[in-house]
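Fold it.
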Amino acid sequence: MEKIKEELKRYKWLWIFGVVVALSMGVLAANMHVITFMHAYIKEDTANVIRLISKDIKNEARQDSWYFKKGIDYLLEDASEESLDFLEESLEELNADRQYDVIKAYNSKKILFKDHKVVIQILMQDLGNSIAQDYLKRVDVSKLDQELFYYFGDKPAITNEFIDTLYQILTVYPKQLPLDQFQFDLYNILTLEGEEGETKKSQIFSKLEPEAAKLLLFKELKTKPVDLDVLNTWVEFLNKSKVLTGEEYAGFTNHYAQIQLMRSQYKRLSEQEVDLKNKKEMIEVEIGDKLKLLESNQKAINALKYEVSDLEQELEKLTDYAHMAFYIDKAYGNGEYEASVPRKNLFGNYKSSSQKYILKLSTTEFYQEGVYYVDVYLNGTKVNPKGNEYPHYIEVPKGNLERISTLSRSRGLKVDELESLTNETAKLQTQVESVKKETGYEENELALENLHKEREGLTKKIGSKIVEIKNMLGIGNVSMRDL
């Protein structure tokens, strides 16, 4: 042990020198990357600068190192095609600080990225950043229109986030969007309300190309309903936003003013209708019981008329018979006889003739030839035992005659009842008409009828004006709440 200590004392400086050399070699090896970079930086060797910093581009921590920042600064200062291509290709992999270093330098040098997809994605994350705003201001309007289409899609949902983002962009951007590719639902933008909503709506519309905005909006309004008064508010807004032409605005306001005049007339008529209906109800309360009784009597009269008619129809069928003279020639049996038209001879006696009949009796009986008078119904024709076809008569049954008597009495009673009820109803009607005349009921009814006609006329005129508005603006469904 003592020997080792002596050896250490003897070669102390040699040992120290060795450690120093070893440490120096380690430090040199550790910083060889930086040394190599500095060599390339000093020599302005762009290809090597790119090669060296690209090794650390996926290491976010190293992107904050001194030499990495220096490399980005070098490439920005160099601004050669090679440098700018590398920066654009690598922009997405840089951390936020380095990204904004690059974008800030582009702003200073007034250059733009060849492909805006990545840079737009970056800028959208922090539209309040002045660097982002400065870059957006410099983007060509057609390019921005295209990039917004790529970013939001062809049918963006009109959410609060969408509105806020678009508002921020168009507050900064100095030009109007052409809406060539980037299109969105302007109908929902128009529905924004409140102080904040109106501010955003005004800013958005002020940065849209007027004719393009009008075509897009009215295309949407072909299928979406809108109330006329809401449309009037929108037209005022669109006029202030310079979306409508002076001719379109004047045309609409002229039609709307005429509609408003007709609406005031319509309202006045509605108020008059209330007064007329109240008067009508008051009169009808006064004559209400009589009107109910009139209605009841009329129903009873109609019922009696039907009953009398039924009785008369049945009587007509039953009384369709003739009281005829028959000369009885022979009996066939079973109440059936051969008869003929009685004919007088030279001596004034009756005898048979050539005009033959077949007679069927149900009540009367004949015991010998001769002339008899019978009430009969004609019942077509019938063939006798010899094959001869003669007119066929049937005696009116005794029951039919009794039924005729009963029906005649019933008819008489019903006719008397009908006459009495008709007279009572006529008197009642006279009383009602007297009250109506005294109270001006008929005049009131006529006024109501004329009012309805006048109001129908106004409704048609208003409808015609609305059609003119729809045709003028090229929109579809315009409604009114008070018609």
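The beta strands are 226-227, 322-333, 336-340, 343-344, 350-351, 356-360, 370-383, 389-395, 478-479.
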